[in-house]
Amino acid sequence: MEPSTNLMYSTGSNIQPETQQPRLLLVDDNPEQLRLLIEALRAKSYRISVAFDGFQGYDRAVSIIPDLIVLDVHMPRMDGFALCRRLKANAATAHIPILYLSSDSEVDKKLAGLTGGGVDYILKPYEPEEVVARVQIHLALVAKTSVSTTAHTTNQPATPMDEDSVLVRAVQQELKSNLSLTPRLADIATQLGVNERRISRAFRKCLDMTPFAYLRQERMKKACQLLTETTLTIVVISQEVGFLNAANFSTAFREDTGVSPSDYRRNSLTTQVERT
CA–CA separation, 140 vs 137, rounded Å? Predict the structure, then answer.
């Protein structure tokens, strides 16, 4: 089933030139529920595209690079949270503001959406006018940020990323978000709408390592930083980077760096003194 033409793009003879119209992508497995919202957005002369599930939504987003995305949380194959994580992991689409539509009013669901990269979480049932107002607010914020950024930098388009690179980056972001925890790869896969094998293949292809070898690497980097830049005890640092006790941490640290955490800290302090 493909969206009809009148659902795909705004039309009318009194609209602005197409190049000036923000393009919106609406992702929902039941676009008929969006009909009133689409009509309200059309009245503001927005160009509108529709996708019917998370995978189609991702492909359309990468293809057209919309100015803003409105997506439903509950969809088959890939839900809205998984879609958002993938889009935020792709350099070409990471800047796009994402607004959720959901009937879930639980705080944990809202937090999952917002911490996953969404900028707004709108409860169903909603008034189309409210959604339009929020769309206008976020587009205005993007425009303001773009003007500020362009004034200081050359605004070059992001380098396109292949699907394996996007997947690896999404997993990296999840692993680095809390190095004190050791998440299950199955849980991360579910959050991204894939299976564990898919993640493992992508890591082997892009980094030539497993996801948990990468996690260990990042933990050691963080440990080195904490040893150098803070006065935290070895016990506290071991907890910060996900080890059950200081002894296991010290053994792993020595395997990676060739020295104990205490010696690493001592050598770093000596180097800093010599430089001053």
Answer: 5
Cα 210 to Cα 134, 150, 185, 255, distances in angstroms: 41, 39, 11, 18
Calpha distance 199→183 (Å, rounded): 14
pTM: 0.72
> Which CATH entry fits the domain spanning 163-275: 3.40.228.10, 3.90.1510.10, 1.20.1440.230, 1.10.10.60?
1.10.10.60
**Which single residue is written with the structure tokens 């692993």?**
175
Query: What tokens were used for 185?
Result: 């790869």
Assign domain 5-152 to its CATH architecture. Answer: 3-Layer(aba) Sandwich (3.40)
Please write the tens of the pLDDT for every residue from 239-275.
999 999 999 999 999 999 999 999 999 998 887 766 7
3 state SS of 78: coil
Collect all residues with Cβ–Cβ distance below 8 Å to 215 and sequence separation of at least 6: 175, 179, 182, 242
Residue pLDDT, tens place only, 117-161:
999 999 998 999 999 999 999 999 988 876 655 444 445 556 668
Question: Which residues does 132 contact at the CB level (< 8 Å), separation at least 6?
Answer: 37, 40, 41, 44
- Give the CA distances from residue 130 to residues 49, 136, 202, 225, in Å, rounded to whole numbers and listed in that order: 20, 10, 41, 46
Domain ranges of the chain: 5-152, 163-275
Peptide bond into 97 cis (omega under 30): no
